[in-house]
Write a structure and sequence with these properties.
This protein is of the alpha+beta class. The protein has one domain: Endonuclease/exonuclease/phosphatase (Deoxyribonuclease I, Chain A, 4-Layer Sandwich). It has ten helices and twelve strands. The strands form two sheets. Strands 3-4-2-1-12-11 form a six-stranded mixed beta sheet. A six-stranded mixed beta sheet has the order 5-6-7-8-10-9. Helix 7 runs parallel beside helix 8. The two termini are about 30 Å apart. The N terminus is likely disordered.
């Protein structure tokens, strides 16, 4: 997610003007309120129907693969050790991929989608410990697929789709395009879902409800929280899909996956939940946990991890 956040979004709610207080004799300056942080609870590895998780998937918008590798992102990946690692906003052509990631023995099956027209723009990747039955790129529409935004892997019991959804951009200059994308992408997912259930993960570039960002009031006309983008996500859920985090944690506030680099937003936890695992409703009985790994550094997004029995 890249956007120039306005001051209301980027500043914490607890910033108090202490200048006038300090000028008055005998008055104590009011301390800024401590930020409310989200503590990722212990992982749950058993589903509602009593099955043990047998698939662990991690998704991370790395905001530039080469910089992320230099920031030791792969050390965290090795510690997390998912069965599949999905990356978004790689911003790297295949010929420029760092050897540190192309040579990773833990993930012998690696797939890359990059922007055809713009070097250092968009891009997604999928790294797998076991070989998928089939891997495809894009959604079958040239206007979308030229930007390298989707990889789909077929596994025996499900499809895994990773995506970097187009940003409506500053001034909402791409909002109309985003609305077209939402309709076409939903149709693509619904068609897959008729064949076998799916897991969708990635940076979906929308905070769905007010609970999903720190400052909803100041952002209703900003990319990622417009009524049009939120409605697009609602329509996806209405088509038979489930936001796994909200399914398990419906009332959990302050759980974000993106923080602008400006104004110490991450340390204040002034953020947005833009990264998701969305599941076909038929996979719900096997859902074990949907994690936000907000302690992991290396990008303006944090990774998220899904535990599921499939």
């Amino acid at each position: 997610m890249k956007r120039g956040k306005n001051a209301e979004e980027a500043s914490g709610d607890g910033e108090n003007d202490t200048s006038s207080a300090s000028a008055k004799k005998g008055k104590k300056t009011k301390e800024p309120e401590a930020p409310v942080l989200y503590e990722d609870p212990p992982d749950k590895l058993t589903s509602k129907d009593g099955r043990s998780a047998n698939m662990k998937i991690t998704s991370w918008n790395v905001d530039g693969l080469r910089a992320w590798v230099k920031k030791k992102g792969l050390d965290w990946v090795r510690e997390e050790s998912p069965d599949v690692l999905c990356l978004q906003e790689t911003k790297c052509s295949e010929k420029a991929l760092p050897a540190d990631i192309t040579s990773m023995p833990e993930y012998p099956y690696k797939y890359w989608a990059t922007s055809d027209e713009k070097e250092g723009y968009s891009g997604v990747a999928m790294l797998c410990k076991t070989e998928p039955l089939k891997v495809t790129y894009g959604i079958g529409k040239e206007e979308h697929d030229k930007e390298g935004r989707v990889i789909t892997a077929e596994f025996p019991n499900f499809y895994l789709v990773t995506t970097y959804v187009p940003n409506a951009s500053k001034g909402l200059v791409r909002l109309d395009y985003r609305k077209t994308w939402d309709v076409d992408f939903r149709a693509y997912l619904s068609e897959l879902d008729m064949q076998k259930p799916l897991v969708l993960c990635g940076d979906l570039n929308v905070a769905h409800q007010e609970i999903d960002l720190k400052n909803p009031k100041g952002n209703k006309k900003n990319a990622g929280f417009t009524p049009e983008e939120r409605e697009g996500f609602s329509q996806l859920l209405e088509a038979g899909f489930v936001d796994s985090f909200r399914e398990l944690y419906p009332d959990q506030a302050n759980a974000y996956t993106f923080w602008t680099y400006m104004m110490n937003s991450r340390s204040k936890n002034v953020g947005w939940r833009l990264d998701y695992f969305v599941l076909s409703s038929s996979l719900l009985p096997g859902l074990c946990d949907s994690k936000i790994r907000n302690k992991a550094m290396g990008s303006d997004h944090c990774p998220i991890t899904l535990h599921v029995a499939v």
